[in-house]
Amino acid sequence: MKTVLHGALVAALFASCGTLLAQEAQKTPPQAQEAPSVDSIIGTLKTDNAEQSAGQTRALRPGAASMATTAPAPAPVATKPAKPASINMQINFEFNSDRISGSSENTMANLAAALASPQLQDRKFTVIGHTDGKGSAEYNKALSDRRANAVRRYLVDHGVASARLRAVGKGKSELLNKDDPFAAENRRVEILATGG
């Protein structure tokens, strides 16, 4: 009887520990997420994403060059413009502040290294700050401006030429998760390739 009770007690303890560990895993804050690597940032921002429209061909068919003198030129195929390369980054700030949290140090260091890399040296970027839906539009716009400028300052201080960076705040006007306006993923900084 003692062995059965002892076994049941041990099983109950393991079950409760498992539940506590699962609850702790769900509470893991966004800042505990792994920072994107320098190479992944470079790969995302290196080139714009040109989308081919349906029906666009990649090569001429054999013999097309010899027919060019007798056949009328085909009408140009409309193509979609290249979508500017961009990346959304979860950069944490102190509450109600434009001070970048220490938990985002690796993310910021990798971002600075990527933007200063030879692969991206000819590109210009806009740093766009976004907030969640809590608070007034005016307040969130001002806060997102300050946070975008804080990221820009950090990048300049870490080797990215200031002429290559522009900062803009969008406030809560472009929520990433519209179904949950207060979700953490709405509080983000977007890096948009704007030239080069």
Automatic annotation (TrEMBL):
Domain named OmpA-like: residues: 80-196
Coiled-coil segments: none
Localisation: Cell outer membrane
Main location: membrane
Residue ranges with Low complexity bias: 62-82
Pfam families, per database record: OmpA
InterPro entries the record matches: Bact_OuterMem_StrucFunc, OMP_bac, OmpA-like, OmpA-like_sf
Signal peptide coordinates: 1-22
Alphabetic keyword roster: Cell outer membrane, Membrane, Signal
The protein's name: OmpA family protein
Organism per entry: Thermomonas beijingensis
Source species taxonomy: Bacteria, Pseudomonadati, Pseudomonadota, Gammaproteobacteria, Lysobacterales
